[in-house]
Amino acid sequence: MIGGVVVALLLALLTLLYLYLYRTYTFWTRRGIKQITPIPLFGSFLPVFLGRKNHGEVYHEIYYKYPDSDAVGYYQFLTPKLMIRNPALVKRVLISDFSSFRDNEIYANKKDDPFMELNPFLCRGETWKPARTSFVAGLTTSRVKSYFPLMKDTLKHLDDFLTDKLGKELEAKHFSNIFFMTLVSNTAYGLDANCFTDPNSAFRKMVDLLSKTNWQKFHNVLIIFFMQSLKTWLGYSFAPKPMQDFGARVMREVAETRVKTGTRRNDYVQCYLDRDNTVEEKVHELSNHGITFFIGGTETSSITSGNIVYDLALNQACQDRLYQELKEAYAKSPELDCDTLLNLPYLNKVFEESSRKNHVFYALPKVCTKNVTFEIDGNELDIAPGQLVMIPSMEIQMDAKYYPDPDVFDPERFNEENKRARPEVTFMPFGEGPRICAGMNFGILQVKIFLSHLVYNYKILPTAKSAAKLSYSKHSYFAIPDHNQFVKLVRRTH
Predict the structure, then answer these.
(1) What is the pTM of this model?
(2) Which of 1, 48, 80, 260 is the most buried (most CB within 10 A)?
(3) Which residues contact 411 (CB under 8 A, 6 or more apart)?
(4) Is 217's pLDDT higher than 70?
(5) What b/e sequence results for 27-43 when a residue is b if at least 16 CB atoms lie within 10 Å of its CB, and e otherwise?
(6) What is the DSSP string of 22-54?
(7) Considering only 5-9, 166-170, 438-442, which range has the smallest mean pLDDT?
(8) Distances (CA, A) of 465 to 164, 269, 377, 461
(9) What is the arrangement of strands in the sheet containing 364-367, beginning at the earlier edge strand?
(10) Using one digit for the tens of pLDDT, what is the confidence trace for 361-396?
(11) Which of helix, strand or coil describes residue 64?
């Protein structure tokens, strides 16, 4: 009798589970949208959960499953999500219908991320705009240009580091990373640091906390980036707590010392110290923005620069052309002023082409904030607040419809004629619209300072370990190459 009751309960539970999963996983088909067949409980993310594929590889499969569709439905574990493929719809999400997609999917809260509540990428609702305004106050075009001398000072540390390493195998992202750690510590944190000479420096340890992966951290990343409700319930922080605590402590010490001594320095810190508010308010803003600056200014810039250095090593003709442009620029202006650097045509093309080919992020995840209707494959789809959508930015930038032979490194894709011939919003390495990367101008300038100095003074060569095509880590949210980008540097004799 008891056994029969148990069996009946189990059957009832299994039936309820089946009905729940059936309703969950027919969300898109019931709305007339083509969808990827899900695996129960995991949706399309079982290979990611098992560490067999990164989420970029999963997005690649989804993107090309229905190559003529405007959008494709899939499931992020139990959550329905819509991949927007059509550039016209991408423009609506990011620009023209921005008010309906104001929030990013990924967010932080004050309780778990006390020093990231003002991060302009992670803020939601009414807080994102004032938070962004506060963050970019120190990153206006004129202010970024004023940091130019401090940025250039970092180059002498790079040259010292490379002195005894010429002709030897180097890993591009590794020395790029140390360079940007040093640069950001000088311009954002107001410290005269040299991360090249101190492998145990606190800034290098901060980067290790952020970028090094293991199995436990990998699954933490899965929860933080792909299971927002579970992340909040478990109290996971977006950035490692030791990194947040260190960054906040350094900013507090720098700010309080300057206020006490009256010391001034033309850097990001000084911008906030000159504002008309209390010391505590200044320290609070700086503590938040310092962490944001460190993550955006080191990890993403080092990935970008490592990729460009590697592309130039594998494409010597492009490197030679860039060197000739730099040689002419340095001949006219030996110090290579900021405006000249930012407006070098071929350097711009190299930067844009490598950014197209090697994205830092696989996608731009958004959440609907206001009812909107899209026409998808001839059918009207009502998108309600809370619905997750995703812009597959890497796949769009590698789509042969917009960029023929997409694996080929060809900076001329970004001449004016070719740019005009492409649909809008098919190039978005910094995002697009009102929530475009808040630190874009700073990031572009520091990467160009690094690259122009490197290419003008050193010839970048491939090694026997240089792979023709990059593959990416399966354990990181960023698109980080999973093998070392080995190059050799040889000093040029102009």
Answers:
(1) 0.92
(2) 48
(3) 318, 346, 349, 350, 352, 353
(4) no
(5) bbeebebbbbebeeebb
(6) HHHTTTTGGGT--BPPPBTTTBT-HHHHTTSS-
(7) 5-9
(8) 21, 42, 45, 11
(9) 71-76, 79-84, 388-391, 364-367, 103-104
(10) 999 999 999 999 999 999 999 999 999 999 999 999
(11) helix
Bridge partners for 317 per DSSP: none
Say which range, 17-31, 222-236, 419-433, has the weakest mean pLDDT.
Answer: 222-236
What average pLDDT does the chain have? 89
**Residue 74: its H or E element:** strand 71-76
- Residue 368 sits at φ, ψ, to 5 deg, of -70, 135
Residue in 380, 416, 422 with CA at minimum distance from that of residue 400: 422
- Mind listing the pLDDT tens digit for each residue in 130-175? 989 888 888 989 999 999 999 999 999 999 999 999 999 999 998 9
Q: Using CB atoms within 10 A of its CB, is residue 261 exposed (0-12), middle (13-18) or buried (19+)?
A: exposed
Q: Which helix (H) or strand (E) holds 460?
A: strand 458-462
Cβ atoms of 446 and 440 closer than 8 Å: no
Q: Give the Cα separation of 360 and 430 in Å (integer).
A: 9
User: DSSP code of 423?
Assistant: P
Structure tokens at 255: 């700010």
Please report which helix (H) or strand (E) contains residue 82, including its range: strand 79-84
pLDDT band at 106 (very low <50, low <70, confident <90, very high): confident
Separation of alpha carbons 324 and 343, rounded Å: 15
Helices (H), 295-438: 301-314, 316-332, 338-342, 345-357, 393-397, 416-421
Residue 448 vs residues 36, 232, 308, 322, 452: alpha-carbon distances, Å: 41, 38, 10, 12, 6
CB 35 within 8 A of CB 28: yes
Burial of 245 (0-12, 13-18, 19+ CB in 10 A): middle
Instruction: Of 222, 277, 227, 279, give the one whose Cα is nearest residue 255.
Output: 279
Q: Round to whole Å and give the CA distance between 195 and 216.
A: 28
3 state DSSP class of 67: coil
Closest by CA to 258, choosing from 237, 279, 242, is 279
Summarize pLDDT for 247-295 with one digit per residue, the tens: 778 888 888 888 888 888 888 888 888 888 777 787 778 878 877 887 7
d(CA 343, CA 326): 11
DSSP 92: I
Is the per-residue pLDDT at 218 higher than 70? no
Cβ-count burial of 76 within 10 angstroms (0-12 exposed, 13-18 middle, 19+ buried)? buried
- Of 488, 447, 121, 191, the C-alpha closest to 303 is 447
